[in-house]
Amino acid sequence: MTAASRLRTLYDTLAAAYGPQHWWPSESPLETMVGACLTQGTAWTSVERSLANLRARDLLQFDALLALPEDELRELIRPSGFMQRKAATLRALLELVANEYGGSLERFAEAPAETARAQLLAITGIGPETADAILLYALGQPAMVVDEYLRRVVVRHGLAPERVRYAEVQQLALAAFAEETDPAALADHCNEFHALVVQVGKAHCGRTPNCAQCPLRGDLEYYQQEQNRQGRLSDLRND
Ligand code: SF4
């Protein structure tokens, strides 16, 4: 069984265990984009408080948010932490959409994914995970988001080495859906995949794994048995 097909089976197992995840939890693509910037290094509950501050002032609209002075933005997003850096990132992101796409997220969503990704990555404070989250959840592009939970799962299940890079995990995860030729259907899988990985990560695969009740323990046992079998074969060869 290849790593990609095992990962696909893990996805199917999680989907059967947890059901549809209905991500991203937001009311508009703009709110998703803002949330994706604010969630870096912060619990989602803190992001929700910042979003509530913006919503209370009717600022979750593109023109209103763009017109907001940066010092006021900083205060409103204070609950998410790193408010100076995050406010600057958000402003740069809004300016990108204003200058390149006339302030339209619909037009941004129509840009080629590679172009949009490069533009996002050029903004200070936006790394690959945030860029892919914006591409996928705000713009509807088939981007695979790699987070710490996914990295842990693939490493602990022997699907990738300890020091695996972002792009390598992303490639592996996309290979799990290689048969999918429809970009919209692939985007749906990417959406569910990331949401399900976050779910299993929060429930079981934290810094200390809690495998006993985890839906993915069957694959872990398979991997460990394979490891033991390989070890015995190697011992026999060395005898
Ligand atoms: S908790 Fe254990 S079985 Fe579950 S994903 Fe993590 S390593 Fe695998």
From TrEMBL:
Gene3D superfamilies the record matches: Helix-hairpin-Helix base-excision DNA repair enzymes (C-terminal), Hypothetical protein, domain 2
Keywords on record: 4Fe-4S, Iron, Iron-sulfur, Metal-binding
Database matches in InterPro entries: DNA_glycosylase, HhH-GPD_domain, HhH_base_excis_C
Biological process terms in GO annotation: base-excision repair
Pfam families assigned: HhH-GPD (PF00730)
Gene Ontology MF term list: 4 iron, 4 sulfur cluster binding; catalytic activity; metal ion binding
Boundaries of every HhH-GPD domain copy: 38-196
Name of protein: Base excision DNA repair protein, HhH-GPD family
Organism expressing this protein natively: Acidobacterium capsulatum (strain ATCC 51196 / DSM 11244 / BCRC 80197 / JCM 7670 / NBRC 15755 / NCIMB 13165 / 161)
